[in-house]
Design a protein that fits this description.
The protein contains 16 helices and no strands. The protein has helices spanning 17-44, 47-55, 60-87, 95-109, 115-128, 132-160, 162-171, 173-183, 185-204, 209-225, 227-230, 234-256, 264-267, 275-287, 299-309, 315-358. It starts with 16 loop residues before the first helix and ends with a helix.
């Protein structure tokens, strides 16, 4: 008797144009930006001269100290995120797991932009069996607090390093464009109209299925974000935030001591032993994260080189500083990522053994 084949072929999933666009934005664009800027830098920088600079007197002990401070900043960041998670109702997560989630996130961000952020949210949601949207909301709050600090630093730098910033805004095309952007009334009117359109859609199409789904996700995101204002330990959170950003600044400033050609930044009048140029280099480097890239490679180097050029540092010397510092920072983040991977595999193995023993 002939048997009928009841097996149904698995349908091929349809990928929309928006999904393709999302993949391009998250994966291809950052890689293209990094490669493009690196190629441009290779044309502008004499790398033979840069290697000669590196052979003559770089004190690598300062770079090792920088890596220790970087590790400390990541650990503090994990502890700080724990305050948000607990305030959002995500309890019983040990501090070591919070720290490891940050180690892993920064390591994965070296591969593709924002992959690390997605991974740490998924890791916490699955580990704690909680809503992913709520965890993402805490991540958004985490980044929002960073944005507040960066804007504060930009504001402070306008007072303590006004000559360098005036030179940037008035004599360079990028500075002129930024000045025009923030002072153009039509741009602000356009942003206001976009906000009004979003409000109108939420108001008059609230019963639409897609709008309801979006509102649900936004509410879950907000529940994770609002803990910044409702948590019981706000003072501890902002104290840890201050500690994180002091460490971030030291990651830039300590490396100044490693390069002999940066000695004028300590001795010239008005430099306050390198603190003022350190702030400018740090602010420019921090603002470069707005440009999608792979691990900051390209935009961060270019921003740091430009900031150093405002203080008379040559392109070759500035390139040597940016590439060596980036290389050492990347190296320690890879090591921390490996430690995170070992921890995650170890905890999964322990959990599976516990499940088997209970059965």
């Amino acid at each position: 008797m002939q048997q009928t084949n009841t097996h149904k072929s698995t349908p091929i999933p349809h990928i929309s144009v928006w999904q393709y666009a999302e993949k391009i934005f998250h994966y291809i664009l950052p890689l293209a930006v990094s490669l493009g800027l690196i190629i441009w830098l290779f044309k502008k920088v004499d790398f033979k001269d840069m290697l000669e600079v590196l052979k003559n007197g770089v004190n690598y002990w300062w770079l090792i100290l920088m890596m220790i401070v970087l590790t400390l900043s990541r650990a503090i960041r994990g502890i700080r995120w724990g305050y948000q998670l607990r305030a959002a109702g995500i309890t019983d997560m040990p501090p070591i797991a919070e720290v490891m989630s940050i180690f892993g996130a920064y390591a994965l961000n070296l591969v593709f932009s924002w992959v690390g952020e997605a991974w740490r949210c998924l890791y916490v949601a699955r580990r704690q069996h909680t809503s992913l949207s709520t965890v993402v909301g805490t991540d958004i709050g985490d980044r929002a607090s960073d944005a507040i600090v960066v804007m504060t630093l930009v504001f402070v730098s306008f007072f303590v390093a006004r000559p360098a910033l005036d030179k940037f805004l008035m004599h360079y095309a990028v500075g002129k464009d930024l000045f025009h952007f923030f002072t153009d009334v039509w741009i602000w009117c356009g942003l206001a109209l976009i906000g009004l359109a979003i409000w109108a859609i939420a108001k008059f199409f609230s019963h639409c299925k897609y709008v309801e789904n979006i509102e649900k996700v936004i509410k879950e995101l907000w529940s994770g974000f609002k803990v910044l204002f409702t948590m019981n330990h706000k003072q501890a959170y902002w104290t840890l935030t201050l500690c994180i950003w002091i460490c971030y600044f030291l990651e830039t400033y300590l490396c100044f001591f490693a390069f002999p050609f940066l000695k004028p930044l300590f001795t010239d009048p008005g430099m306050f032993y390198g603190l003022v140029p350190g702030l400018i280099v740090f602010v420019f480097g921090s603002c470069s994260i707005a440009v999608p890239s792979t691990g900051g490679l390209g935009p961060w180097n270019l921003a740091v080189m430009f900031a150093l050029s405002l203080y008379g540092i040559s392109t070759t010397d500035a390139a040597a500083y940016s590439f060596v510092v980036w290389g050492f920072q990347t190296g320690i983040q890879i090591v921390l990522g490996i430690i995170c991977a070992l921890y995650v595999m170890g905890t999964k193995s322990s959990a599976s053994k516990c499940d088997k023993s209970e059965q």
